[in-house]
Amino acid sequence: MDVPSLVLVMAALLVVVALTEPIARAVRLPSSVVLAGFGVGVGLVATVLIHGGVVPADNATARFFADLPIGSDIFIYVFLPTLLFHSALGMDIHQLAEDGVPVLMLAVIAVVVATLAIGFALWPVAGVSLAACLLLGCIVATTDPVAVIGIFKDVGAPERLVRLVEGESLLNDAAAITMFVVFSALLTSTAAVDGTLVALDFLVIPLGGAVVGVVAGRATAGLIGVVGDNRLVEVSLSLALPYLAYVVAEQLFHLSGVIAVVAAGLTLASAGPARMTPEAWRYLKDIWDQLAFWFSSLIFLLASILIPRLLGGVDAYDVLLLGVVIVASLAARWIILFGVLPLLTAANLSPPVSGDYRLVIFWGGLRGAATLALALAVTENAAMPPEVARFVAVLATGFTLFTLLVQGLTLRPLMRSLRLDRLTAVDQVLRDRAVAVAYAHVADRVADVAARHQLDSAPTADLVEAYRARGASARTAAETTTLLGADDRLALALVAVAGRERELVLQHAGEGTVSQDLVDRLLSQARGFLDAARLKGVAGYRAFAEKRLAFTWRDHLAYRVHARLGIDRFLARRLEDRFELLMETRIVLDQVLPFVEQDVTPVFGTETGDAVRRVLGERRTAVNRAMEALRLQYPDYADALERRFLARVGLALEARHVDSLHENGLVNAEVHRDLARSIAAAQARTAGRLALDLGLDTAVLVARTPLFADFTAEQRAEIARLLKPVVVLPGQTFIRRGEKGETAYFISSGAVSVDTGRSEIRLGRGDIVGEMALLTRLPRSATVTAIGYCSLLALSRRDLDQMLAGHPVLEAHMRRVAEERRRQNIAAVADGP
Ligand code: CMP
């Protein structure tokens, strides 16, 4: 095809793609269905033109549509990475981690189960090799969230459901493509394949790919940080990232390219925003949205253009095979959602996902661009045996069409019948109440303006009256539909408060007073509160508040790494993050209170307003307590954080002031730019991480411990060599009654609670704990739990002997303490009830 014709064809395709959205909206169909319909039309015309002899068989334009000019590599190397990277960029890594188990479960295991189910169901009947059946299995195993998410948003589905489905589809694409690559290699290579090697490949190839992706993502984020604030450069780097990661992983290291792309996307999504301005990040995401839109539309078009040609040779047997695929894939999905996921929940490995949600996820597993791209890659792969290519193309397209037409078109009614759109009815009431308040305000304001400018004509009065009437009718609507009890009202008010919290965070982000990384966490926190209040009302809100303050498994992991391996960095980071999050949460909570006064109370009534204030008050107290516990142990860090926050607020004010001077023409553009640049430089200086020193210098801790006060410097240095510093988190139990004891601890700071079963004793700085088991070789006599953050000096049994041998005074002291405690405990038992 000559260049002008090619340009023309591409431009025409773009017009089609562009018009699909509005048309789909008008006819209320998923846009993929409309696009597919159009593609089928084009393919039909091209086939008829050529085969009907209307145009010569070598007509370039007709050929273009009848035989795709795109090879299989383009689908694998360009189309898929683009789509995968785009969805990874949109993931909230923190929330993904929270739902990690169900998402991984749905994604990876479900894909494997579906592949096997479909593969083995087809094998006896399909008349092609098992590898070909499995290849088809993994191609159709991956789900596409776009259509489903569209429906979810329309009916106002809860955010967590959206997140589960998005997370699932991202990871299952990666899993399916990884298997796809292995099975196509099996089918196209002539060499014998070693089974164990293949099994090993399934482990090494994805993990290695993930490593490549993380490294590439981090490198890109680092580079973005270095190049300074230039969004054109930043976006270009982000564009290069997935393809580089893909090719490097595939070609250089023979690892999984798709997983590298996903890992790179997730890494950039979590590390990127902190290194760019919010506008630049938004710009980057917009560009990726655009690209992904083009590519996925193009895949749909190209695949559906092929349909007429494929369907030309379809017979009844193909339809039967399609039936097998449908049944097997639905059965596999059912087993995962209704068999395995509840088991995981029962084993406490996954937060519960309600039956309704599971049903919707089950039926919403539509197939889309990824499946079609893989099928196209098979048909365009010259090395693929033709009967396999046909088998895959017919069944994959057929199945995709089935999911789009049958499942896609019935999903909305299904959600309605499950009443998962019920919240929109509740939202309606909320809306009416808000409108009532707003119109009343507007009426007052208009009346004010009229009075001030002496516009007291009849039309003005009419206008004011009209506003009042609209306000009143909205109020009546809200009140007559008020089937809402006090609890529902409170839940809705809390939803509104969480929304407000979110806005405040965004506002702070815009002002640059919080780092982007923290913004992400705060936003996900606000979203969590929103979901909790929506789904479980005030009890859910309270429970979520409690959960947010508890230490997470990641904190505990970091703690283990610190305590067992002596690596402090991760724990310090977790505590830094916690510190920052608590401080900013407190600030946001303080700002939410006026909102309750101004907006919540008028809309929901005094009773609800007061209840909201109470709930927020509880939350603030809890946050404060957690913050104070940290401050007690790390006062310098708390001060530094506060100083930095104020510095950021100051800079934000400066920037605003300088802008307004410029807008009012008081300083010229050059001066303005210069001032802005110096403010930006100062802002950049406050942007990095503030490192938290856990204060684990053994020598310092030894010097601070009263027990060693009388020792010479030399003796202390010698003792310091035997001791290992550890931090213990509040609430953490580090000695359990009845267990065998191997370590004793000197408390350098903080306090612990000793529970002997009869009494509770508090020990603090300077005390020793856990010495009895070591001296007497008896099991631990009590359970010891940290009350606040503690710095301890740990001493192992072997080192204890060495230490005591050199220091008779210390030995005598310790034995005395142990003996005293033993006597106390015996006495307590004797006194006991
Ligand atoms: P051990 O028995 O190794 O483990 C539990 C520890 O709790 C014990 O050592 C003491 O250090 C401490 N402990 C037990 N009983 C008392 C007590 N009555 N008063 C203070 N500390 C105690």
Question: How do the helices and strands line up, and which of them pair or pack?
Answer:
Elements: H1 3-27, H2 31-51, H3 60-66, H4 72-89, H5 93-98, H6 100-126, H7 130-141, H8 146-155, H9 159-188, H10 195-227, H11 231-252, H12 257-271, H13 278-312, H14 316-346, H15 355-363, H16 369-379, H17 386-417, H18 422-452, H19 458-480, H20 486-511, H21 516-549, H22 553-565, H23 569-604, H24 606-633, H25 635-663, H26 669-685, H27 698-704, H28 713-722, E1 724-728, E2 733-735, E3 743-749, E4 752-755, E5 760-763, E6 768-769, H29 771-776, E7 783-786, E8 790-796, H30 797-806, H31 808-831
Antiparallel strand pairs: 1-8, 2-7, 3-6, 3-8, 4-5, 4-7
This protein binds adenosine-3',5'-cyclic-monophosphate.
The site of adenosine-3',5'-cyclic-monophosphate (CMP) has 17 residues, from helix 29 and helix 31.
Bound molecules: adenosine-3',5'-cyclic-monophosphate
Counted beta strands: 8
Largest sheet: 4 strands, antiparallel
Shape: globular
Strand order of the largest sheet: 1-8-3-6
Structural class, by secondary structure, is mainly alpha
Calculate the mean pLDDT score and round it.
Answer: 84
Number of helices: 31
In angstroms, what is the radius of gyration?
Answer: 33 Å
Oligomer: single chain
First-to-last CA distance:
98 Å
Residues in β-strands, percent: under 5%
